[in-house]
Amino acid sequence: MKLSNATLADLPKGIARPTYDRASLTPGIVHIGLGNFHRAHQAWYLHRLMQQGRALDWAILGAGVRPYDAAMRDRLKAQDCLTTLIELDPKGQSAEVTGAMIDYIEIAEGNGPLIAAMGDQRIRIVALTVTEGGYFVTASGAFDTAHEDIAHDAAHPDTPRTAFGAIVAALKARRAAGTGPFTLQSCDNLQGNGAILRQTVTGLARLSDPELADWIDTHCSFPNSMVDCIVPATGAKEIELAQSLGIDDAAPVTHENFRQWVIEDAFCAGRPDWELAGATFTDAVHAFEAMKIRTLNAGHQVLANAGEVLSLPTIASCMMDADVAAFFAKVEAECIVPYVHAVPGMTPQAYADLIARRFSNPMIHDTVRRVAFDGSSRHPGFVLPILRDALAAGGPIDGLALVEALWARMCIGLREDGTRIDPNDPIWPMLSEAAMAAKTDPQAWLAQAQIYGTLGQNAAFAEAFARWLDALWQNGTRATLRAYLAG
Q1: Which of 264, 135, 276 is nearest to 199 (CA)?
Q2: Which of 364, 371, 477, 359 has the alpha carbon at shortest distance from 424?
Q3: What's the pLDDT tens digit per position in 429-474?
Q4: Which CATH number fits domain 286-486: 1.10.1040.10, 1.20.1730.10, 1.10.10.10, 3.20.20.100?
Q5: For strand 59-63 and strand 183-186, is the pairing parallel, antiparallel, or unpaired?
Q6: pLDDT tens-digit map of 355-364
Q7: Are 96 and 17 contacting, i.e. CB atoms less than 8 angstroms apart?
Q8: pLDDT at position 138, please?
Q9: I need a labelling partner for 289 at 20 to 30 A (CA). Which of 206, 348, 386, 420 fits?
Q10: Rounded CA gap, 275 and 350, in Å?
C-alpha cells in the first residue's frame, strides 16, 4: 500500500500510526540535514509527544542545502512526509509510521526558500544533522574562515551556499523585522556540539556583519546535546522489508531498539516537552556525550577499518569475528574506558558492555562502509582526543596506534582478498596518497597536520604506529590483531 495521509487508516494491522490530526499541525522546527538518523531519533521523540496530544505546534519542516537533497525531498513529499520506522530487535521486529514532519522546504541555489522559512516567526528551533565534519572546524578546533564555501557566504550573505549562511541570513531578517531569535540545536556527534555550532554561526556572521554576530551570540541559544541510536543506511533491502510489512515507503528507516537523547535545557524561544517522551535534560551533558562519543563512536572506528580490510560487511559481523571482537574488547577496556567518567546510573565499563551488546545485534545491517565513512573527521573527533589523554596519563597507546594504522591500511583502497574499497572520504585522494607513501615511510601518514596536528611528532605514538603499520603489511591484519591480543 502506497504510504500517504489517505492510506494511513488502511495500513496493515499491527502497524502503529499517527493518532493525531496531521492537518492541524503547525510548524515550530526547521531541521536541516534530513537523513535517516533524524527521522529515527529527534523526529520520533516529537512524534511520541504528538501521540500524547502535545507539541502540535512544533511540527518539523525538513530542509537541505545541496542539490542532492532534492531526491530525498521528492521521495518524502510524494508520501506526505510520512516515514516508516522499523525497529530491528533480535526478539522480533516492529514498525510504526511517524508524522511529525509536515513539509520539506524547496531546495534552491542561494537557499532563498530556506531563509524565508526560518524567518517565519512560528519557527522557534532550527536543528541540524550535517555530519561531524560539516561545521567548518580546523584541526586545532578553530572556525575555518579559509574554506571556499565560507568565503563565498561571507562575500554573498544574501545568497549563501551553506546551512550556516542561510541561518545567518534568516537571523538578520528576523532581527530587522523584530521577530526575535530562535534556538540553534546541533544533533550531530560532536562533543560540545552546541558550542561548536555557536562558533560556526557567529564566526560566519562576524565576517560580514559584526553587529549581527554580537546579536546572535547574545540572543540565540545553542544547547549542547548527546544523541544516540544506531540507524543503518536505507537501500533496496530496507525498502523490501517495508514492503514485506505491507507498506510501499520510498524511504523507510530501520533502527535498533535503543535511543538516548541528553540535552542542555537552553532554549531561548521555548521547546517541546521532550522529557515526556524519554529525553533527559541536564546541565551535565558533557559527561554523557564524552561517554558516548568515546565508547560508541570511537568504538565504531576500532571495528570498521579492520572489518573493511578483512571483508566483513557489517558491524555485527565484526563482533562475530573472534579476532576483531577481541581486539574491540581489549581496546575499549585498556585504551578507552580509563578516560571515560561515570554518569548517573552507568559506569564506564557497564556502558562499554552495553555498546558491545548493541553492536552485536545481528538484525542491524549497519555496514562497515557507512561507519568508516569520513574517517578524516571521525578519527580526529572520536579517537585522537582519547590518544592525547592516554599520552598525557602515560597509559597504554598500542591499541589506539593500531586503530590508526588500520585506518591507513584501509585507505590504500584494497582489501586483503584483493577487492577494491571504493572512495569513502571527502579527501579520499589525499588519504590514499598518504597511505601509499606510508608503506615505506609511516611518517607520511602522520604528517597530515589537518588530521593529527602535532600528534605525529610524538615519539611514542609515531613508533607504535610505524610498528603496527609495518606488521599489517608484512604479516596481514589477522596476524597483527592476534599479536596485539597476545601482548
Answers
A1: 135
A2: 371
A3: 999 999 999 999 999 999 999 999 999 999 999 999 999 999 999 9
A4: 1.10.1040.10
A5: unpaired
A6: 999 999 999 9
A7: yes
A8: 87
A9: 206
A10: 24
Q: Considering the domain delimited by 5-283, tell me its CATH architecture.
A: 3-Layer(aba) Sandwich (3.40)
Cα dihedral 176→177→179→184 (10° resolution): -40
Q: Taking the model in full, what pTM does it have?
A: 0.85
In sequence order, which residues have a C-beta less than 8 Å from that of residue 442 and are 6 or more positions away?
462, 465, 466, 469, 470
**Neighbour order of strands in the sheet with 83-87:** 94-98, 83-87, 253-255
Give tens-digit pLDDT for 120-152: 999 999 999 998 889 999 878 899 999 999 999
Alpha helix positions (H), 220-309: 236-244, 285-292, 298-309
Do residues 153 and 165 touch, judged by C-beta distance below 8 A? yes
Give the per-residue pLDDT at 190.
87
Domain boundaries, the chain: 5-283, 286-486
For residue 21, give the C-alpha cell. Answer: 490530526
171 and 216 Cβ atoms separated by less than 8 Å: yes
Strands 27-32 and 125-128: parallel
CA terminus-to-terminus distance, the chain: 57
Please compute Rg for the chain using Cα positions.
23
Cα–Cα distance list, 180 to 8, 60, 122, 218, 276 (Å)? 37, 19, 11, 12, 27
CA distances from 295 to 228, 288, 383 (A): 12, 11, 10
**pLDDT greater than 80 at residue 405:** yes
Report pLDDT for 133: 84
Tally of CA atoms within 13 A in the half-sphere of 247 that contains its CB: 34
